[in-house]
C-alpha cells in the first residue's frame, strides 16, 4: 500500500510514541523493586513479577495481535490498545496493595503488548525493502532504549518521590497520544475478519503463564516443590498442545510455518537470547547494588544510563549500516561484546566500583544495539508480505516469553545461590548469588554468539522481491 510522506511521518511518530511508553514500562519497575519489596513485605522473587508479568502478558497478547491486526483497522486497534494501557496505568498508580498493583501491570501489558507488533507490521508494509533497515533502526531505538532508560528513570523518581509517581508521569503522555491519534491516525493494514480461536488463547495462556509461574515458584519454594513441578508440567503440556493446534488451524493464532523461511529460526533464537539478557542484566544489577551493596536506587539508575544513551544513539546508525552490509557482522560483533561484558559481571565483589559497573554495562548495551533490530529485520525480510504480521508476532512473542521466563530463572538462580552462601557462612551471600546468575547468563549469551556465526546475508526470494516491489 502506497503512503504519502506526510502520512508515513504521522503514522511513524504516533506508533513510536505509543510503543515507547508501552515498552518503557517493561523495565520501569526494576529499580523500584527493592522499595516496593520492603513496603509491601514480599520476596524478591515475588516482586520481580512486576517486571516479568508485564512481559509475560505481552508475550500472550502479541500472538493475538496478529489476529487483531487482520480483524480491525490500524486506527481502531491503536486507540483501543492505548486506552487499555492507560487504564492499567491508572489502576497501578492508585493500587493500595501488591495484588492491585500486579493487576494494573497486567492491564497495562494487555494494551502494550499490541503496540510493538502493530508498529513493526505497519512499518514493514509502508516502507520498501531497501529502506527497512533505517526505519527498523527507529524501532530498535524504542525496543532497546525504552527498556534501558526505564531503570534510570525509576531510580531517580523512587529516590526523590514515591514509586507511584512512575505511573502518574506515564498517564498524561498516554492520554495525549490517544487524543492526537483520534484526530490524525490513518488506516494502513487491510482488514480480513479472521475467526478467533478461543482454545488457542487458553492454551497459550496456560502454557506461557505456567512456565513463568513455575520458574518463579522454584525461586520461592525450590525446584522439588510439588507446586513447582505441577505448574511447569501443565505449562509444558499446554504449550505443546498449543503448537500442535496451530498446525491444524486454517487461520492459526501464531503461524509456525514462518520457521521454514531461510534464516528466520536463527534470527528469532538470537533475538530471544539478546532480549532475555537485556532484561535479566537490568534486573540483576539493581538487586546486586541495592540489596548486596546498599547503593541507592539513583546510583543503580545512573549505572544503567550511559548504556541506555549509547543504545539510543547507535540504533538508527546500526539500521543504516544494516541497509549497506546486512546483519551478519553486526550480529557477530554485537554478541561478542555482550558475551564478554556479561562474563565480566560475574566477578563482582564488595569493592566493585560504580565506574566498573557503568563501563561494563555500557559495553554490553553497545553490543545489544548491534544485535536486536538487525537480526529481527533480517529474519522478517525473508517473509512474504502476507506473513510479515505473523513473523513479527512470532519473533516478539518468543522474545517476551523467553525474557520473562529467563529473568525468572536468573533471579531464582541468584536467590538459590544466595541462600546456599548464607548457609555455608559466606561473608557476602548476596554478591555470591549475583555472580552465579551472571556466570550462567554469560554461557547463555555465548550460545547466542555461536548461533550468530551461522547467519548469512541473504535477500528475500526473487518471487517475494517482485511482490514487495509491486505492492510497495
TrEMBL record:
<keyword id="KW-0812">Transmembrane</keyword>
<protein>
    <submittedName>
        <fullName>MFS transporter</fullName>
    </submittedName>
</protein>
<feature type="transmembrane region" description="Helical">
    <location>
        <begin position="48"/>
        <end position="69"/>
    </location>
</feature>
<feature type="transmembrane region" description="Helical">
    <location>
        <begin position="259"/>
        <end position="281"/>
    </location>
</feature>
<feature type="transmembrane region" description="Helical">
    <location>
        <begin position="12"/>
        <end position="36"/>
    </location>
</feature>
<feature type="transmembrane region" description="Helical">
    <location>
        <begin position="301"/>
        <end position="322"/>
    </location>
</feature>
<dbReference type="InterPro" id="IPR020846">
    <property type="entry name" value="MFS_dom"/>
</dbReference>
<keyword id="KW-0813">Transport</keyword>
<feature type="transmembrane region" description="Helical">
    <location>
        <begin position="354"/>
        <end position="376"/>
    </location>
</feature>
<feature type="transmembrane region" description="Helical">
    <location>
        <begin position="437"/>
        <end position="455"/>
    </location>
</feature>
<feature type="transmembrane region" description="Helical">
    <location>
        <begin position="107"/>
        <end position="127"/>
    </location>
</feature>
<feature type="transmembrane region" description="Helical">
    <location>
        <begin position="134"/>
        <end position="153"/>
    </location>
</feature>
<feature type="domain" description="Major facilitator superfamily (MFS) profile">
    <location>
        <begin position="11"/>
        <end position="460"/>
    </location>
</feature>
<keyword id="KW-1003">Cell membrane</keyword>
<dbReference type="GO" id="GO:0022857">
    <property type="term" value="F:transmembrane transporter activity"/>
</dbReference>
<feature type="transmembrane region" description="Helical">
    <location>
        <begin position="397"/>
        <end position="417"/>
    </location>
</feature>
<feature type="transmembrane region" description="Helical">
    <location>
        <begin position="329"/>
        <end position="348"/>
    </location>
</feature>
<keyword id="KW-0472">Membrane</keyword>
<dbReference type="GO" id="GO:0005886">
    <property type="term" value="C:plasma membrane"/>
</dbReference>
<feature type="transmembrane region" description="Helical">
    <location>
        <begin position="165"/>
        <end position="184"/>
    </location>
</feature>
<dbReference type="Pfam" id="PF07690">
    <property type="entry name" value="MFS_1"/>
</dbReference>
<keyword id="KW-1133">Transmembrane helix</keyword>
<dbReference type="InterPro" id="IPR004638">
    <property type="entry name" value="EmrB-like"/>
</dbReference>
<dbReference type="InterPro" id="IPR036259">
    <property type="entry name" value="MFS_trans_sf"/>
</dbReference>
<feature type="transmembrane region" description="Helical">
    <location>
        <begin position="227"/>
        <end position="247"/>
    </location>
</feature>
<dbReference type="InterPro" id="IPR011701">
    <property type="entry name" value="MFS"/>
</dbReference>
<feature type="transmembrane region" description="Helical">
    <location>
        <begin position="76"/>
        <end position="95"/>
    </location>
</feature>
<feature type="transmembrane region" description="Helical">
    <location>
        <begin position="196"/>
        <end position="215"/>
    </location>
</feature>
